[in-house]
Amino acid sequence: xxxxxxxxxxxxxxxxxxxxxxxxxxxxxxxxxxxxxxxxxxxxxxxxxxxxxxxxxxxxxxxxxxxxxxxxxxxxxxxxxxxxxxxxxxxxxxxxxxxxxxxxxxxxxxxxxxxxxxxxxxxxxxxxxxxxxxxxxxxxxxxxxxxxxxxxxxxxxxxxxxxxxxxxxxxxxxxxxxx
Length: 179
Prior knowledge:
This protein is an alpha/beta fold and 179 residues long. The protein has a single domain, classed as Spore Coat Polysaccharide Biosynthesis Protein SpsA, Chain A (Alpha-Beta Complex). Helices cover 22% and strands 26% of the residues. The chain contains 4 helices and 7 strands; from the N terminus they run E-H-E-H-E-H-E-H-E-E-E. The protein has a 7-stranded mixed β-sheet with strand order 3-2-1-4-6-5-7, sandwiched between helices. Helix 1 links the parallel strand 1 and strand 2. The protein is globular and about 40 Å long. The termini are far apart.
């Protein structure tokens, strides 16, 4: 079976949050990815170095790479994460470090849809709106723009029953008990 890796985008500055939110939220995302059908995990840091405790315990198949050009946008971070993957990885599941409610089942659904031929870019949808996780086949890795994959029209996989992964931009966006 084809190898699939996860790329966690954690390079942002967190200016609206008031600091490095990824240090607070990344352990929950990695814990959820540990239950998802991915063979390896690459976390892309940038504005802030990630402390070992940010990675969390039990993340033995997780590597951290640094994106020196993180200010260029999420596409720069994604390109760096994709470049860090081994040659035998055929697709990457892209998730955000500020989505602590990521459902491993959503990862499984988008990966399954990609494996079944849905297309080179497959995204979870919530209420008909594109969200994360997003699967990107290796064939679509070569021309990721700085703004990321937003302009690409993905095949959508409904994940309404699982709930969106979250998008923590400000302190008030934190789930109850996460602060």
